[in-house]
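tool=predict chain=A
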Amino acid sequence: MVVIVILLLLNLGTLTFLFMSQRHPPLGPPPHHQGGPAGFITEELKFNDEQKQKFEELKKEHQSQMRGIMDSIRIQRELLPDLIVNGDNKGADSISTIIGHYQKKTELYTYAHFVKVKELCNDEQKKKFKSIISDILKMMAPPKGEGHHPPH
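tool=predict ok
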């Protein structure tokens, strides 16, 4: 009987620990900074007016690049249902390779974008940039559970 009570208490303690450990908010920047990642960057790095203008140009260029790539990925994903219905494994492999190519481009364009953003910074801002770049990339990532999925 004593063993059963001890096991019951251990189980309750374990469940309480698991439940409480899942309630802690994630570390890092707020997921929805009022000005988004761009606002976070300009505020944290304390960009002057000239830097803000150049950053805005870089941001528009990057968004245009990303829009084009995302459109291309969407078009490829729209082909998947027919391939599934027809059992076209070769076509699916081809499309996944193309999507992978576009995904690689998004990563390289994002990398190049932030290299240019870093070049806008003075020495003091570059130090701060180094400490916030991970937070910025987390803010830009799709929310968990909302990755790139094929259409329904």
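The longest helix spans residues 89-120. Helices lie at 2-21, 36-45, 49-78, 80-86, 89-120, 123-140.
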